[in-house]
Structures are given as structure tokens and as C-alpha cells.
Specification:
Length: 371
Amino acid sequence: MAYVSPKEFALIFGVVAACYWNSLFCGFVFDDVSAILDNKDLSHKSYRPLTVFTFRLNYLFSELNAISYHFLNVIFHGIVCIIFLKVCKLFLDNKSSLVASLLFAVHPIHTEAVTGVVGRAELLSSIFFLAAFLSYTRSRGPENTIVWTPIAATVCLVAVATLCKEQGVTVVGICCVYEVFIAQGYTVPILWYTVLHILQGKGSIPYCMLQMLLKLIVLMFSTLLLVVIRVQVIQSQLPVFTRFDNPAAVSPSPVRQLTFNYLLPVNAWLLLNPSELCCDWTMGTIPLVESMLDVRNIATVTFFCFLGTLVVFSLRYPGDSSKTVLMFLPFIPAVKPFFLLAVVAERVLYVPSMGFCMLVAHGWKKLSSNR
């Protein structure tokens, strides 16, 4: 397990405190009103009992004093930064890991998640999200044996993360990528050759692959069970959006698909250049993409080409750079399901920004070493 020194701990919490101390005096705004002042636990059929429980603890100790709610958010953000540093140290050197963690700590895209009280769902979910991944990295024993205790802990932590916010379940995808391409060291050509060799009857499934499949089956089955339970709790009802808050969701084809795809590069650009942030992206802030000839489609095509290049590079070639890119890519779907991304919401980029910060720190290291 990666070690965080007292100096690193103090530095990160000091930076977080310096960056967000003024958020203590923000009061309750926007969604905070319905989630806290009006005491509505559910919003758009969300089921986040552990997040609501922390709100009730705040109320128990300070009633509706907004300072205590914001203070706890800042603490949670600091904890996420510390755990994220431990994750980075699995793939980067100490200096690059610290750069990634500090960048994550001060990234402007986190303003909504940290300063908005309801953003606590992202913060809490991220704590258990990262803890689940760290637990899974300890599931490989000597000679590729399986250590079941960390896997059981991973499943429990995934469940807790999901009870904070539904995106917590996406850490399972990151664990699967880690197991196949990092822990086992496979590349796509090796996997293809091995599978082809087995299908042709030229050999049996290697023992290490059997162990890997067993771990992934247990992990995926447990996750599926969690999803089924959650669906039953919310009675299989999906969010209902209006043209006011989600215009693309009620638009015909191909406007809906073009807009959905365009919002992915918009989100990516906010991570790279967060110079134009907005407290509310509804009410048609981003006009619909209504034609194939819309110049904004160039941004969509460019984004998917760049993403495809990263995927091909990281899956075909071994090496530290490929491993870092591989651990960046799975963070992309760690947001609301694709069909819900019909508006830009900055707080849902809290987890994807982890992969972005990791990639930037790795690129910075490479540029520094080549000078």
C-alpha cells in the first residue's frame, strides 16, 4: 500500500483549506434549498441514504447553520485528495503523484462539488470509490493466488459508494481494467493470441487466466446484484426530464444523438480549460446540435479520434505510459449514465477529473525528463 507522509498530508490539506476556506460562508443555494432547507431526501428518484445521513448529522449538531455543512464538505474533499494520492503512487513516482493530487485539489471544475452542499454526494462516493479500488489492488497474492478478503472488502465498499451516489458502481470497471491489463500484464495482441490458441484446441486456458476470470466473475456478479437491488429500491423508475432542464432528452433523432455526443468534448474542454464555468447549464445554455453540418460536430469527431488513439496506444503496447493511460480511460464513464448527460453538470466531472489530473502529471513528467 502506498504511503502518504505527514508532510504530504499537511501540504494537501493546507492547499485544500486555502482554496476553499471562503466556501464556509456560502450559505444554502440552488439544490441545497430542496435537499437541506426543504428536507427532501430524494431528487429525480436518486437514492443516496448515506449522503442524506450526513446531512442529518449536520442538522443534529448545528441545525441549519450552513457553515458546518460547508466545513464537512471541505474535509471530505481533503480526504479524497489524500486517497487519490495513494492511488496515483501505484502508477506514478512520488513527485508526479503529488502534482496530480495537488492539481486535483485546486481544479476549478470542483467548485460546484465542494462548495455546493449537495455536492457531498460526489465527495462521499469518491472516498469509497477510491478505497474500493485500493482494496482490490491487494487481491493478488504470491504466485498469482487470490486473496479473497480484499475482494470482499471491495464489494462492500462499492455498495457503500453506491449508497452515497449511484456512480460509485463504476469503480468495478476500473478494477476490471486493472486486473486484466495491469495486474496480469495482458495486451490486446496477447489476449487475442491466447483466446485464438484455445479456440483452435492447441492448448488449455492458462492457470493465471482462470484465476483472473474467477475474480472478475465474482466481482461482476456482486455488482450486478447491487444494481438489481438498487433498481428494486427505486422501483425501476428512471429520471423524468423536461425541455427546460434537459432539452436534448426530449429532442428527436438525430438532434438528440448529435447533442449527446457533442457534450462529451464540452465536458473534456471544461477539464482542460475551466475558464468559463457556470452554476446552472440548463435553459439552453448550450444550444442543440440540429444538423450534421453544424461546425461543432468537428469537436465531437476530434474528441473521439483522440480517445480512440489513446485506447489503441494503451491496449497494444506495454510500458509505464500505457499503464497510466489505461488507468485514465476508465474514469471517463465514471459519471452519470450516458443517456443522462444531456446537460453539462460540473459536479459530475469530479471523478473523471482524477484521470485527467493523473494524465497531466504523467505528461509533465515525460516533458521534464526529455528536456
